[in-house]
Amino acid sequence: MEAWPDDFLCPITLEVMTDPVILPSGHTFERRSIQQWLDGGHLTCPVTNLPLPPCPPLIPNHALRRLIAAVSLSAAAAAAAPVPADGGAHARQEAVPAAPARSASPVSALLRLAKSGAAGRREVLESGNAAVLLRHAEAGDEAAARALLHLSLDGDDTRVGLVADGAVDALSAAVSHGGAAAASAATALTSLATVDVNKCTIGAHPSAIPALTGLLRRGGPRERREAATALFELCKLPENRRRAVREGAAPALADFAADGSARAVEVLGLLARCREGRQELCRIPGVVSVLTGVAKSGNARAIEQALLVLNWICAESNELALKAIKLQAFDLCEALVNDDNCKIAKNAVELVRTLEKA
Fold first, then answer.
1. Euclidean distance between CA atoms 87 and 310, whole angstroms
2. In this structure, are residues 316 and 280 in contact, taking their beta carbons and an 8 Å threshold?
3. φ, ψ of residue 282 in degrees (nearest 5)
């Protein structure tokens, strides 16, 4: 093996580990080398120089040991692959593609472990290998972003811990990269944001909401859907609604709603709950047309939210109320006031009352 991943190398000997163990500092070392360090009277971590407790425990890093073994087998198989009979330049060229196995990333194995269930997720987390996933996700690795998503399913404590370890930095960077990793990273942010304290931390991060808004503008259908879902979860916190408005999320959401996204309409419903959101919505060209279109042909949840937002912005702007009337909003409401969905019926009645004042 010519180029092992750095995570496989002992920080003391810089050699591939065969029996990796974790210090209380969180760093992993070859058992024999760290034991020699401790036996020499050193009372600090070789990496951080921070003090260690007396007789620090050496916890086996089973996940990393399995990863090293798996990559070793992969590289051995590549090296043993038969060479074409001509043995010439063509054979040498054919051998080149096998080279990446020499620097194979541990991410795919970590993803398999994280997907395997609760025990696998705990093993990744307890081994300290979440840090490996964070580094790779930050560089735009889709498998790392998906692995982090699976880890976040381990519960609220894990979600808070991942955020504390820097997951928002890594996932926001992955969303900004775009491409295959962006949707998975946005989904992971949604999962992390289901914890209230994380909503605040993620929303206050300088890159998270701007990255999601950018993905909403420039991504494909899946990327836009996941970005809208992440914003929906984040904007359940009132302060994040104002942040999203400041970052320009409202026009991007209106465009997505015009393309038929019910989730985008739901986020607009949250933004409209703050004054800044209503004022921004009033400035979006064609917003009344978009919302009336959704109210005519969307699903039940989208219709409910479209009527709600229409009511708020028409109450905010007499000009928009008149536009809604021209777009036959009265007829629309008349058809909905007796809807079986009581929320739709209620919102239709409220909109009629607002339009009657115009």
1. 73
2. no
3. -65, -25
Residue 41 DSSP SS3: coil
Residue 204's pLDDT band (boundaries 50, 70, 90)?
A: very high
DSSP conformation class of 154: T
Among all chains, which residue has been given the structure tokens 């921070």?
50
Specify whether the CB–CB gap between 193 and 199 falls below 8 A. yes
Residues in contact with 164: Cβ distance below 8 Å, sequence separation at least 6, in sequence order: none
Count CA atoms closer than 13 A to 149's CA, side-chain side.
20
Please state, in angstroms and rounded to a whole number, the distance separating the CA atoms of residues 325 and 357: 11
Q: Are 146 and 185 in contact (CB under 8 A)?
A: no
| Confidence grade of residue 104 (pLDDT, cut at 50, 70, 90) | very low
Enumerate helices (H) and strands (E) in the chain, giving the number of each.
22, 3
From the CB of residue 212, how many other CB atoms can be counted at a distance below 10 Å? Answer: 33
Span between the terminal Cα atoms of the chain, in Å: 76
